[in-house]
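Reading group handout, session on sequence-to-structure problems. Before we discuss, look at one worked example. The prompt was deliberately terse, the way you'd type it at a terminal:

> structure Integrase catalytic domain-containing protein

The input record follows.
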Amino acid sequence: MASVKKLYLNPRLKGSYSGAATFYRNRHPKLTFKQVKEELQKLSEYYQFVQARKKFPRRQVVSHFANYIYCSDLIVLPRKYYKDNKPFKNIIIFVDLFSRQLFAYPISSKKPVAIIGALRKWLKQVKKKPSYLQTDKGT
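And the output record:
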């Protein structure tokens, strides 16, 4: 078992510092592929730089028609843009999930008065009132 560690961490050998399949194919250790993979999982050099999975399960949201479901969120601008965008420090966005149409409104603060004002502007601009508005809890 210690031989897997020595072989994997030796940069002069072909297949070292690579994936489990490439390492197993090039080094031909006397262990099974499953055993080699288990040993490699114990090494921080192996699992520390593994790429994140690009495809992972997501919740499916079904929007039957336009103006059915909208999502909303608040964007806080970085401080370096405060001077250029006075007095606006935040942007509230509304996205139609069916058509992907986006509405964005600058607001000066996170206070309920400013949020309600932007919500009223958005409801005036939307032709048909939405059935659902999805937001996060906000912190």
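Points for discussion. First: Residues 112-125 form the longest helix (14 residues). Second: The longest strand covers residues 69-76.
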